[in-house]
Amino acid sequence: MPREFQRVLRVGEQVRRELAVLLRDEVKDPRIGMVTISDVEVSRDFARARVYFTIYGDQGIVSACQQGLDSAAGFLRGELGRRMKIRTVPQLRFIYDNTQQQGDKIAELIERGLAGNCTHDE
Questions:
Q1: Tens digit of each residue's pLDDT (9 = 90 or more) over 27-43
Q2: What is the CA radius of gyration of the chain?
Q3: Domains of the chain from N-terminus onward
Q4: CB–CB of 100/52 below 8 Å?
Q5: Rounded CA gap, 24 and 37, in Å?
Q6: b/e per residue, 31-65, with b = 16+ CB within 10 A?
Q7: How far is the C-alpha of 107 from the C-alpha of 42, rounded, in Å?
Protein backbone atom coordinates (compact mmCIF):
# COMPACT_ATOMS: atom_id res chain seq x y z
CA MET A 1 0.00 0.00 0.00
CA PRO A 2 2.71 2.59 0.77
CA ARG A 3 4.30 1.99 -2.65
CA GLU A 4 0.97 2.58 -4.36
CA PHE A 5 0.52 5.84 -2.44
CA GLN A 6 3.99 7.01 -3.48
CA ARG A 7 3.25 6.16 -7.11
CA VAL A 8 0.03 8.20 -7.04
CA LEU A 9 2.02 11.19 -5.74
CA ARG A 10 4.74 10.74 -8.38
CA VAL A 11 2.20 10.49 -11.18
CA GLY A 12 0.39 13.57 -9.87
CA GLU A 13 3.63 15.54 -9.86
CA GLN A 14 4.48 14.39 -13.37
CA VAL A 15 1.00 15.35 -14.59
CA ARG A 16 1.46 18.80 -12.99
CA ARG A 17 4.81 19.33 -14.75
CA GLU A 18 3.53 18.11 -18.13
CA LEU A 19 0.37 20.24 -17.91
CA ALA A 20 2.42 23.33 -17.11
CA VAL A 21 4.52 22.79 -20.24
CA LEU A 22 1.48 21.98 -22.40
CA LEU A 23 -0.42 25.06 -21.24
CA ARG A 24 2.60 27.26 -21.85
CA ASP A 25 3.61 25.86 -25.25
CA GLU A 26 0.68 24.10 -26.91
CA VAL A 27 -2.65 25.60 -25.83
CA LYS A 28 -3.47 28.75 -27.79
CA ASP A 29 -6.82 29.60 -26.17
CA PRO A 30 -6.79 33.33 -25.30
CA ARG A 31 -8.97 32.68 -22.24
CA ILE A 32 -6.07 30.79 -20.67
CA GLY A 33 -3.61 33.49 -19.75
CA MET A 34 -0.83 33.28 -17.23
CA VAL A 35 -2.28 30.30 -15.43
CA THR A 36 -0.29 28.35 -12.85
CA ILE A 37 -0.93 24.71 -12.00
CA SER A 38 -0.55 24.64 -8.23
CA ASP A 39 -1.36 20.98 -7.50
CA VAL A 40 -2.69 17.76 -9.02
CA GLU A 41 -4.45 15.08 -7.01
CA VAL A 42 -4.72 11.77 -8.86
CA SER A 43 -7.18 9.10 -7.72
CA ARG A 44 -5.77 5.75 -6.62
CA ASP A 45 -7.04 4.03 -9.77
CA PHE A 46 -5.58 6.83 -11.98
CA ALA A 47 -9.01 7.38 -13.56
CA ARG A 48 -9.45 10.98 -12.40
CA ALA A 49 -7.27 13.94 -11.53
CA ARG A 50 -8.18 17.17 -9.81
CA VAL A 51 -6.01 19.91 -11.27
CA TYR A 52 -5.81 23.02 -9.09
CA PHE A 53 -4.91 26.25 -10.88
CA THR A 54 -4.34 29.88 -9.97
CA ILE A 55 -4.59 33.00 -12.06
CA TYR A 56 -4.55 36.63 -11.04
CA GLY A 57 -7.55 38.72 -11.91
CA ASP A 58 -11.17 39.29 -11.05
CA GLN A 59 -13.93 36.69 -11.10
CA GLY A 60 -14.55 37.25 -14.83
CA ILE A 61 -10.96 36.32 -15.70
CA VAL A 62 -11.10 33.27 -13.44
CA SER A 63 -14.39 32.15 -14.99
CA ALA A 64 -13.08 32.58 -18.55
CA CYS A 65 -9.90 30.69 -17.69
CA GLN A 66 -11.96 27.89 -16.12
CA GLN A 67 -14.01 27.60 -19.32
CA GLY A 68 -10.87 27.59 -21.46
CA LEU A 69 -9.26 24.87 -19.36
CA ASP A 70 -12.44 22.78 -19.39
CA SER A 71 -12.65 23.01 -23.17
CA ALA A 72 -8.96 22.06 -23.53
CA ALA A 73 -9.23 19.08 -21.13
CA GLY A 74 -9.66 16.49 -23.89
CA PHE A 75 -6.70 17.81 -25.86
CA LEU A 76 -4.56 17.97 -22.72
CA ARG A 77 -5.50 14.42 -21.74
CA GLY A 78 -4.54 13.15 -25.19
CA GLU A 79 -1.20 14.92 -25.04
CA LEU A 80 -0.55 13.53 -21.56
CA GLY A 81 -1.20 10.06 -22.96
CA ARG A 82 1.43 10.60 -25.63
CA ARG A 83 4.03 12.03 -23.24
CA MET A 84 3.63 9.83 -20.16
CA LYS A 85 4.25 6.12 -19.82
CA ILE A 86 1.14 5.13 -17.87
CA ARG A 87 -1.60 2.71 -18.81
CA THR A 88 -4.51 4.88 -17.70
CA VAL A 89 -4.48 8.61 -18.38
CA PRO A 90 -6.75 10.37 -15.88
CA GLN A 91 -9.71 12.53 -16.81
CA LEU A 92 -8.87 16.09 -15.88
CA ARG A 93 -11.08 18.25 -13.68
CA PHE A 94 -9.88 21.83 -13.28
CA ILE A 95 -10.55 23.58 -9.96
CA TYR A 96 -9.68 27.19 -9.14
CA ASP A 97 -7.31 27.39 -6.16
CA ASN A 98 -8.04 30.57 -4.23
CA THR A 99 -5.75 29.95 -1.26
CA GLN A 100 -3.37 32.74 -2.32
CA GLN A 101 -6.18 35.32 -2.35
CA GLN A 102 -7.47 34.05 0.99
CA GLY A 103 -3.98 34.34 2.47
CA ASP A 104 -3.66 37.88 1.13
CA LYS A 105 -7.01 38.84 2.70
CA ILE A 106 -6.02 37.34 6.06
CA ALA A 107 -2.67 39.13 5.99
CA GLU A 108 -4.43 42.40 5.19
CA LEU A 109 -6.90 41.91 8.05
CA ILE A 110 -4.08 41.11 10.46
CA GLU A 111 -2.15 44.16 9.30
CA ARG A 112 -5.15 46.43 9.73
CA GLY A 113 -5.91 44.88 13.12
CA LEU A 114 -2.38 45.41 14.34
CA ALA A 115 -2.25 48.94 12.97
CA GLY A 116 -5.56 49.75 14.70
CA ASN A 117 -4.35 48.42 18.06
CA CYS A 118 -1.14 50.44 18.11
CA THR A 119 -1.29 53.45 20.36
CA HIS A 120 1.30 56.16 20.42
CA ASP A 121 1.98 57.85 23.71
CA GLU A 122 3.10 61.24 22.55
A1: 999 999 899 999 999 99
A2: 19
A3: 2-117 (3.30.300.20)
A4: no
A5: 11
A6: bbeebebeebbbeeebeebebbbbbeeeeeebebb
A7: 31
